[in-house]
Amino acid sequence: MKKIAAAVLIVVLSVSGVVPAFANGLNQPVPILMYHNIVDEGGEEDALNVPVDRFEDHIRTLKYMGYNSITFEQLHEYFSGGEGLPENPVLITFDDGYLSNYSHAFGILSEYGYCATVFMITDYIGSYGYLDGEMLVEMQHSGVFDIQNHSASHLYNLSDMDSARMRAQVAGAREVLEELLDKPVRFFCYPFGRHSSALRGVLKAEGIDMAVTTAHGAAKIGDDPLQLDRIRVFGFDTGKSLVNRIGNTTGRHAKPVPQDIKPNDEDMVPFQGTTDYCGTSRICLYVAENFVMDVVSIMPLTGDERILGLIYALYRPFWKKDLSLQ
Asked: What fold does the segment set 20-250 form as a domain?
């Protein structure tokens, strides 16, 4: 049976379209996702806290749907007329510098080959529940995280202060991070999303190239680089709902990208879900009404010939819980 299953999978699974196309010259909106704290499984689900299992569902779904994570360096280069971005770019950000960015998010992002930005409040470095200096250095050097500026003290009224106090908060944090990480710090996140023309002027004078708000939207060429909108990720978001919100915000709905996987016998398991059409010669797989993945058939399928009872799903280890194996 295992040999038969392997044969079915080799025929059915498509490996075409794996390499992302570059979108030079296209003004594609770029979703910037806003996370804060990643909590333990079963923890709070709100605007600041995302359970770790939900976070993995987000990243797994983004990966499967063909999203490619980028950095602010890439976004700035693109906005400046330089190199284009990969198809379906996404920029992942974490505000404040919670310890969970290291303990929970780091490993998941690494596993899926994604990168992200942490906007660190420098006065909080080493405080209870926040990242310490050694963690920040490790994260920066890993290539998975880029550490950037979220001000020194995260003051609610920063945008209303005099220019000297604004400068102390912006430049002070930048200097701490640059000394710790030995690299330029050129991107900023407004505390509480609050900004003003005076604060933006200070950022420009201090060499900040881009800054993000908490306003909802996607970034695109022509936007003020010091007023970039983001998409807040909620703890109750599933991978599917997050991808739908990204598509509704950007106007670009991504399609699944078949994975370039070579099946092994031990990877074969009977599929316990249901199937349906989702395009020409494509079949969608569902478990408990949750979309898992789609496959491509080399032959037309009609009626009961939709491989009901015959389809076998190839899965990576992190798909096990989604496939509800028996």
From this structure: TIM Barrel (3.20.20)
For residues 298 and 281, give the distance between their C-alpha atoms in angstroms, rounded to a whole number: 7
Q: Parallel, antiparallel, or unpaired: how do β-strands 312-314 and 268-270 relate?
A: antiparallel
Write out pLDDT tens, residues 184-243.
Answer: 999 999 999 999 999 999 999 999 999 999 999 999 999 999 999 999 999 999 999 999
Q: Are 292 and 272 in contact (CB under 8 A)?
A: no
Q: For Cα atoms 193, 196, 200, give the angle at the middle one, nearest 5 degrees.
A: 95
pTM above 0.85, yes or no: no
Contacts of 144 (CB under 8 A, 6+ apart): 106, 109, 110, 114, 115, 116
DSSP letters along 129-182, please? Answer: TB--HHHHHHHHHHSSEEEEE--SS--TTGGGS-HHHHHHHHHHHHHHHHHHHT
Reported as half-sphere exposure (CB side, CA atoms, 13 A), residue 53 has a value of 9
Q: Detail the DSSP E strand segments found in 57-125.
A: 68-69, 89-96, 116-120
Report which DSSP code applies to 292. Answer: E
Looking at the predicted structure, is the pLDDT value of residue 149 above 80? yes
Helix, strand, coil in percent for the chain, rounding step 5:
35, 25, 45
Q: Decide if 58 contacts 242 (C-beta within 8 A).
A: yes
Rg (alpha carbons) of the chain, rounded to whole number: 22
Is 80 exceeded by the pLDDT of residue 6? Answer: no
